[in-house]
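Why Protein RER1? Reviewers of the renewal asked for a concrete example.
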Amino acid sequence: MEEELLTSNSKKNVFSQLCTRISQWYQGVVDKTVPWRKGRWVAAILLIAGFLARVLLAQGWYIVTYALGIYHLNLFIAFLTPKIDPAMDFDGDEGGPELPTRANEEFRPFIRRLPEFKFWYSVTKSTLIGLICTFFDCFNIPVFWPILVMYFITLFCITMKRQIRHMIKYRYLPFTHGKPKYQGHEETTGKVIISPK
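Here is what the prediction returned.
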C-alpha cells in the first residue's frame, strides 16, 4: 500500500516538474519576442491572413470569424483607452481632468489600459484558437454571413466614434508618433544638465 502511494506521488511529482519546465520554456520563448515588435506584428497579421484564407476557402465558420472580430475590436479599444480613465477620475471641475497641453504643465504620460505586448499576445493567441476551431465541424454553424458583416461594421463604427469623442473630449492621443520629446541642456562634456525652473 505504501509503495503504491510512493509510486503515485512520484508520478505526480514527475508530471508536475514536466509541466513546470514546459511552462518555463514557453515563458522564455515569449519573453524573447518582446524586443521584436515589428516582427511580432507581421507574424500576427500573417496569422490573421491565414485564418481569413482558411475561412474563405472553406466557405464556413463565419460565427467563429465574427466572434474573433468582436474580441479583436474589444482588445483594440482597450489598447486605445488610458489606464486611468479621465471620465472616472472626476475631481469637481466642469470637464474633469485633462492631459497637459502646454510645456509648463505637469507631465502625465499616456499609459494604456492594455499594453502593446499583451495586445499582441492576446490577438495571436485568440487567432490561433480561432484557426484551431475551423478544423472542427461543430463550430461551423450555418448563418447568413452578410448580416454578420454589416452588424460588425456598424458595431465598429459606433464604438470607434465613441472612442474618438472620448479622445477629443479629454485631449489625449494614444500614439507616440509625432509627440514632442523633451530633453535637457547638454554641456560639451556630454553630461545632461536640467536647469531649475
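The helical segments are 2-32, 37-58, 62-80, 116-133, 145-169. This is the kind of structural detail the renewal will allow us to pursue systematically.
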